[in-house]
Automatic annotation (TrEMBL):
Native organism: Pimpinella purpurea
Main location: membrane
UniProt GO molecular function: proton-transporting ATP synthase activity, rotational mechanism
Coiled coil: 78-134
Biological role: Component of the F(0) channel, it forms part of the peripheral stalk, linking F(1) to F(0). F(1)F(0) ATP synthase produces ATP from ADP in the presence of a proton or sodium gradient. F-type ATPases consist of two structural domains, F(1) containing the extramembraneous catalytic core and F(0) containing the membrane proton channel, linked together by a central stalk and a peripheral stalk. During catalysis, ATP synthesis in the catalytic domain of F(1) is coupled via a rotary mechanism of the central stalk subunits to proton translocation.
Any Gene Ontology CC annotation: proton-transporting ATP synthase complex
Protein's name in the database: ATP synthase subunit b, chloroplastic
Subcellular location: Membrane; Plastid, Chloroplast thylakoid membrane
Gene name of the record: atpF
Keyword terms of this UniProt record: ATP synthesis, CF(0), Chloroplast, Coiled coil, Hydrogen ion transport, Ion transport, Membrane, Plastid, Thylakoid, Transmembrane, Transmembrane helix, Transport
Length: 181
């Protein structure tokens, strides 16, 4: 380390102009060379480095601006999507409510239709029962009439002889003839 400090101290003592030689102190010569190279780089590379940094700055600013525009577009699309979502949710709720009311309406219509059908079936049943009762009554009447007629004919046949029978027939025919005239 002493050589490094000695080289800085010896920089103040330049050798006389008549002596020219090589400085064998590597650290001292490297520092001088590095400072010269850095000075040249700063002097000549300042414009290039400045241009590179300006270009980089512009690209970053453009990227930020584009990102802001994209963010604004994304926010706008998000708001549109939220609006559409709310609209679709409202429509879904409306369809759900309409669907429930439609189901209730159809249920009531179905119940009313079944009720009417049951009433019609009850009426048909009652008419069929009345018809069958009337038919049964008519059949009983016919049998009673036939039995009564057969009984009366049997009684008349046993009680009446031919002459009495012919007289009764003639009297009935005469009464029918008088009614028709």
């Amino acid at each position: 380390m002493k050589n490094v400090t000695d080289s800085f101290v010896s920089l103040g003592h330049w050798p006389s102009a008549g002596s020219f030689g090589f400085n064998t102190d590597i650290l001292a010569t490297n520092l001088i060379n590095l400072s010269v190279v850095l000075g040249v780089l700063v002097f000549f590379g300042k414009g290039v480095l400045s241009d590179l940094l300006d270009n980089r700055k512009q690209r970053i600013l453009n990227t930020i601006r584009n990102s802001e525009e994209l963010r604004g577009g994304a926010v706008e699309q998000l708001e549109k999507a939220r609006t559409r979502l709310r609209k679709v949710e409202m429509e879904a709720d409306q369809f759900r409510v309409n669907g429930y009311s439609e189901i209730e309406r159809e249920k009531l219509n179905f119940i009313n239709s079944i009720s009417r059908t049951l009433k019609q079936l009850e009426n048909y049943k009652n008419e069929t029962i009345r018809f069958e009762q009337q038919r049964a009554i008519n059949q009983v009447r016919q049998r009673v009439f036939q039995q009564a007629l057969q009984g009366a004919l049997g009684t008349l046949s046993s009680c009446l002889n031919n002459e009495l029978h012919l007289r009764t027939i003639r009297a009935n025919i005469g009464m029918l003839g008088a009614i028709t005239d």
